[in-house]
Amino acid sequence: MSSGVETKEFQTEIRQLLDIVINSLYTDKEIFLRELISNAADAMEKVRYLQLTGADVKDGDLPLEITLTADEETHTLTVADPGIGMNREELVENLGTIAHSGSKEFIKRLAEGTQDFKLIGQFGVGFYSAFMVADKVELYTRSYRPEAEGCLWSSDGSGSYTVEDTPDLVRGTKIILHLKEDARDFAKEETLKRIVKQYSGFVPYPVLLNGQKVNTVQALWTKNKNEITDEEYNEFYKYIANAYDEPLFRLHFSSDAPISLQSLLFVPKENFEHWGFGRLDPGVNLYCKKVLIQEQSKDILPEWMRFVKGVIDSEELPLNISRETMQDSALVQKINKAVTGRFLKFLDEQAKSEPEKYKEFYDKFGVFIKEGAANDFGHRNELVKLMRFESMKTEAGKFISLSDYVQNMAEEQKAVYYVNGPSREVIEAGPYLEIFRSKGLDVIYTREAIEDYVLSLMGEFEGKKLISADQAELDLDLPGQEEKTEGEESLSEEALNALTAWLKEALGSKVTEVRVSKRLADSPAIVLSPYGTYSMQRMMQLVNRDLNQVGPAILEINRNHPLIKRLYALHEQNDPFAQTAAEQVFENARIAAGLIVDPREMVNRLYAILERALK
Ligand SMILES: Nc1ncnc2c1ncn2[C@@H]1O[C@H](COP(=O)(O)OP(=O)(O)OP(=O)(O)O)[C@@H](O)[C@H]1O
Q1: Do 335 and 245 contact (CB within 8 A), yes or no?
Q2: 380 annotated binding-site participant
Q3: Which one of 173, 177, 263, 341 has the fewest CB atoms closer than 10 angstroms to its CB?
């Protein structure tokens, strides 16, 4: 390990970020203070925890407070905290590289101008906002570990920084900002006071500005609901979620049994995972009597709830609970169950009381509900109730729940039907709805394979079977459901036998069976999967871009359709064109099923068909 002055290059992404930061607009600049204060508070939170769990912490008596020192003469602002500090390796790791892919994506979009700078705090790169106001940043830091050496990190925000060992520092971090000419206001007390109040009102430690305390420390979640204003809630949300906007939903509750806890949860306005920023980290912090036990706890809530931000505080938790014991602690399970259950109930209530807002929620966060319904067995029933779908009978863009569907069912209808397709238009243009339309039965539209997966896992809902409309063996089980038999000019049984036998031969290994359909009204033919339904195969095709993933099909033909009758006539005349026509009927049915077919074969066949038609 080197101990002298070392000059190091910033990682490419950080250089890009600094470029943007340095040229940021004045109106954006003040958020730098929030970022530095929030880092300081995090570092002290860690010290508090280490001390409570009996770790050996250097300079154990330092009061846990953040000090801001503003000097209008030297145009400097110093932000200091007695937090855990960093040793040399940590310093280089934390303030020279970016590990999280989401942060890299964020920087890329910032550079393209398609992302708002204010979100910087949510992407783990908040420290660099210091360069919005400073043309030189010096950071002195000493780790809490008794054996560690102090260090000075320094940079002017261009391509590189220096690190050097520095003796005689006390524990924690001190950041000296040499303010740029256009940012000298940030050495003025009144400016700083205003910014602390605006952005950092909920820091759980005293913030001292030139020796004077400028914030009130409070754990909002422990207060009584009716003593808290909306503004306070929103400010608190902004603080804990590093957000600049207001939350979409808020849930504040306490419970005594089966476990004593207080919780304040928020659903943000936006889903960053949705925007392609990579997987979200959990957003709920675990406290015991206002002491942070675990930040962004992975164990306290199910994985699908990672979009929720907030706090859970339970006095029953032992302070020294470790990561390992967390996972299998019965207490943690109890908290998990209580909070998840309450949150699910809350969403259900919101869906009823504020359907429009719930729709906004579902549009953005529905992916998590579906993920939970697929993976979280314990809460599947509640989660499925929160899922929303369009259906044949809803207007485009309007949603219903499975419960709505069941309520609207005719008495004699025994099952809930659903069909999968990439869009409403594609589903409605396809042949799968024909029989349902003719019988006046509603069909739920699923868009994603995960929805089909969940419905097939469920098997039934409120005592009704869940049945996919493209299921090969479809028994609508309605009184008076007669077989669709021959109209006047329909093909005879004999002709149908001959035609299906020939089609089976003509299509070879592409089909397992060719039969007469009971479900078609307008389309000449339909394909069904011998393995159940097609939604999984469609997804596999899309993911693997492999046309052969689908396997053979069951082909059903419509005995009343003119095209099928004509096909039979051609076959009877031994016209070789019958083969081409049969293949194209089959391929069309596969396209209508949303499957990807081989375009090369198709194009040649279509030319042959055109040629004949143009004769
Ligand atoms: N005052 C500090 N004391 C100790 N470590 C710090 C301090 N400030 C920053 N760090 C370390 O540097 C890392 C990077 O800080 P940065 O602000 O860029 O991102 P972050 O704190 O991880 O994310 P966010 O800004 O969203 O809180 C932190 O995770 C922390 O490990």
Answers
A1: no
A2: no
A3: 341
The secondary structure element, H or E, covering residue 311 is strand 309-313
Say yes or no: CB of residue 86 within 6 Å of ligand 1.
yes
Q: What separation in Å is there between the alpha carbon of 7 and the centre of ligand 1? A: 21
Centre of ligand 1 from the C-alpha of residue 42, in Å: 8
Cα dist. 576→107, 202, 500, 509 in Å? 62, 81, 17, 19
ipTM tops 0.85: yes
Closest Cα to atom 11 of ligand 1: 94
Q: Is the pLDDT of residue 503 over 90?
A: yes
Quick check: bond before 422 cis, omega within 30?
no
Residue of 32, 39, 125 to test ligand 1 pocket, by largest number of atoms within 8 Å of CB = 39
Is residue 314 scored above 50 in pLDDT? Answer: yes
Q: Which of 36, 46, 127, 277 has most ligand 1 atoms within 8 Å of CB, for mutation?
A: 127
What DSSP string describes 516-540?
E-SS-SS-SEEEE-TTS-SHHHHHH
- Shortest CA distance to 60 belongs to which of 71, 50, 69, 75? 50
587 marked ligand binding residue: no
Q: What is the pLDDT of residues 171-194, one digit of tens each?
A: 999 999 999 999 999 999 999 999
Closest by CA position to 503, among listed 494, 493, 514: 514
User: What's the pLDDT at 98?
Assistant: 85
Q: Which three-class secondary structure state does DSSP give residue 5?
A: coil
Q: What is the pLDDT of residues 46-101, one digit of tens each?
A: 999 899 888 999 999 999 999 999 999 999 999 999 999 999 999 999 998 887 77
pLDDT tens digits for range 546-564: 666 678 899 999 999 999 9
Query: Between β-strands 291-294 and 511-516, what pairing exists: parallel, antiparallel or unpaired?
Result: unpaired
Confirm or deny that 154 is annotated as ligand binding: no
How far is the C-alpha of 403 from the C-alpha of 217, rounded, in Å? Answer: 46
Give every CB contact of residue 576 below 8 A, 6+ residues apart in sequence. Answer: none
CA–CA dist 155, 167 (Å, integer): 20
Ligand 1 in contact with 81 (CB < 6 A)? yes
Measured CA to CA, the distance from residue 6 to residue 20 in angstroms comes to 25
**Residue 231 counted as an annotated binding residue:** no
Residue ranges of domains in the chain, CATH in brackets: 3-213 (3.30.565.10), 220-365 (3.30.230.80), 389-482 (3.40.50.11260), 493-614 (1.20.120.790)
Token code pair at residue 93: 């790791």
| Mutation to probe ligand 1, out of 32, 47, 49, 94 (largest number of atoms < 8 A from CB) | 94
Query: In this predicted structure, what is the pLDDT of residue 481?
Result: 47
Helices 577-592, 599-614: axis angle to 10 degrees equals 130
Contact 134, 186 (CB under 8 A): no
- The whole-angstrom separation of Cα 435 and Cα 476 is 9
| pTM of the predicted model as reported, rounded to 2 decimal places | 0.77
C-alpha 359 to ligand 1 mean position (Å)? 36
552 lines ligand 1 (CB under 6 A): no
